[in-house]
């Protein structure tokens, strides 16, 4: 049985795994590795240490579907809506810009439930805290080394991690990337920001008329969401949760500071915007060094094939755009690249 490794348990990686399982003409052993402790990537949902039912989306907040992609990716939207994984966004988001024909969706169980759905469909062996460091060619297979544990061999490797992390990989992979490909990879750029999740005790009231708000007048804070209200799942038994996304200039300026210091700065600004906000029982601060793609690899739409025998393919939003449809597009392009082989 051919062994396939997908590096990255975000949306592109999880959907690649599900599509490969569905479309393969013969049985595959699928493995998905991620260096984090959980799935989701930039579609991650964090739970309160006191009540796992109290959650915040630390990455993507909602999914915007344009009329173009409503047709092009209809089967993906239809399935997620039919299963209740996505629901229309009906909560009030102040400052949201809605273009003609756009539909917005939320994930009631948190945005990582989309990723978890695809991982489950894939039947893949999922391993967290697996930080890939080297990829070498060994007897027509890929030998993949990680920070801990023994190297493992695979017939196909798909990299869906942010492009700068691909460029940091050691071993034969560094020599297999052509000069043109390397220039393209090095041209990919990302914005950086922080997200801060706040968890409150059951019964806490956060008295604002909105579920989310874009902030235009603060140097630190760009977006605030009362996350359970945004997802329309308010409950008297589960405390509210709030998430703050910083501006990109703030994220860039404080990228190398300690999480604790950054958290204090965000709190100070939040107090200015929402004075008298109750004290949370728990917090979770997330640094997004690679938040959203600001420039994708221009000449490799969807995927970049680094090697054919054996296959080594890169995918992810670095080859498309940072949204749901960008990741779906990339996963479909990776599938197309591998189709003749699987």
Automatic annotation (TrEMBL):
Gene3D superfamilies: 3.90.660.10, FAD/NAD(P)-binding domain. Keywords: FAD, Flavoprotein. InterPro entries: Amino_oxidase, FAD/NAD-bd_sf, RNLS. It holds the Pfam family NAD_binding_8. Residues 106-309 form the Amine oxidase domain. This is Renalase isoform X1. It comes from Vicugna pacos.
